[in-house]
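fyi for ur records
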Amino acid sequence: MTNPLGKDLLALEPLSADQIRLILDTAEPFKEISERAIKKVPALRGSTIVNLFFEPSTRTRISFEFAEKRLSADTVNVTASGSSVSKGETLVDTARNLEAMRIDMVVIRHGASGAAAFLANRIESTVINAGDGTHEHPTQGLLDLLTLRDHFGDLAGLRVCICGDVLHSRVARSNIWGLKKLGAEVAVCGPRSLLPNAIAEFGVTVFDRLDEAMEWAQALNVLRLQLERMTGGYIPSLREYNRVFGVTRERLDRATHPLLILHPGPMNRGVEIDSDVADGPHSLILNQVTNGVAIRMAVLYLLAGGKPELAEAAKGAPER
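which gave:
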């Protein structure tokens, strides 16, 4: 029987609504493992997974490591600065050398859009995209969907606004594709300099003012300013950005209905989001972190050939 997700997970755009629901549903039984005293099950015992990170990462890398270890996989972490990549070795050479060691999966983060697909087309091992350039970050999109589904149930008709630096954000693209496939209404809000020129082709509503977006939305997914990717004057200043597009307590208090707040992290506190919002009662940010491990466990399990209907049984008795 063919894998319902195919060989790799590279993006949410090509996935069907049923495939996305499959991942979300499979993540549900894996949530309970993180609440146990012994946070480990033998579902992927014997599998070898390489985490190949060419960009700095804390949350995503650690989340994948937790997911792999809780499923009892053997893991190897490779960073560009500590590998032969720094000596000029190509991405394919690195992966083929790793594959010659009989690995099963590669989790890759890379600064170039399309790097994950480039790799997946050239090696037999399963490839999971942990973020490629400004293209997509599918597991982040999935954990955001799971977090929203936990609170709203069915996502059909839910109004979600993605706020901030959409231009440089792979998270925004994964969220837009995932939310739309599950029937949500999606909007974006930010300075026109930080929105893609072809944003209308994504089928989203565009707001120029944050207050209008907050009146429309039921949830905001707040993106950080990716200053490391900015080569020009996209905004006048951080202070001005916070004044016009910052999600502040004052703005939340003015809203006519409750809003839930998400943020993929890391946060620029006092810029796109204020601390009393990030740490306040409207925030789902820590829920996102918790759901991230469950989503990545589900993705690893399904791509390794785990049967969706056996996910509940797969968590099984804890490994000792």
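The beta strands are 48-53, 74-79, 105-110, 126-132, 159-163, 185-189, 205-207, 219-222, 260-262. thats all i got for now
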